[in-house]
Design goal:
By secondary structure, this protein is α+β, with helices and mostly antiparallel strands. The protein has 6 helices and 5 strands, in the order ααααααβββββ.
Length: 191
């Protein structure tokens, strides 16, 4: 995931750099360019900010929810980049490429909607904590059982988001790797 973000920053930063080198001009750095070009620069700036926050999350001491919000707002990067490319991309004047580009946008919208609308509102499962065992001074393993529907089978290395409700403490979602074996259903563990 990190590698993909860093690669995107490198490739998308190379795009205006190569254009400026080919034209032997720094005119793209000016704000006095057509708005679709400024929209592309805004998308690139947002991408840089998002990737830097992700890479330096602990250095900046960011609250997890602020980091998560910055990560989730990455849809704006895709939207700005899409409009930028549709309005000034010479390659996208071909109707087949334009159609393909629009299909990719629809797939991106579907993926974001699935993850941010369907899963939180319609696919969330409730669990009861069956036991808590201390592993170290600051690490615990939680064993869960389903409070409602049975647990879906999972694969080794799969993760889940947990939102623990604790009296007097802030409740926020965090990702945890599923620590139990897929064969140990209906119980589930996270450390």
């Amino acid at each position: 995931h990190k590698f993909m973000g860093v690669t995107a920053v490198c490739l998308l930063t190379a795009h205006p750099a190569l254009i400026m080198m080919a034209r032997q001009s720094h005119a793209l750095l000016s704000m006095d360019v057509p708005w679709p070009i400024n929209l592309g620069k805004a998308a690139l700036a947002l991408l840089w900010i998002t990737v830097m926050l992700a890479l330096m999350f602990e250095i900046f001491g960011l609250d997890y929810n602020i980091w998560r919000l910055s990560h989730k707002s990455a849809w704006a990067i895709v939207a700005f980049g899409f409009v930028h490319s549709m309005l000034i991309g010479r390659d996208l004047q071909d109707s087949q490429l334009r159609t393909f580009w629009c299909i990719l946008l629809v797939i991106a919208i579907a993926a974001v909607s699935f993850r941010n609308i369907y899963i939180p509102f319609f696919a969330r499962r409730r669990y009861r904590i069956e036991s808590v065992s201390r592993q170290t001074h600051d690490t615990h393993t939680l064993r869960f059982s389903p409070a409602e529907d049975p647990i879906r089978p999972h694969r080794p290395g799969q993760f889940m988001f947990l939102k623990l409700k604790r009296p007097g403490r802030k409740s926020e979602m965090h990702p945890f790797t599923i620590a139990s074996s897929p064969t140990s259903l209906p119980q589930l563990q996270a450390t």
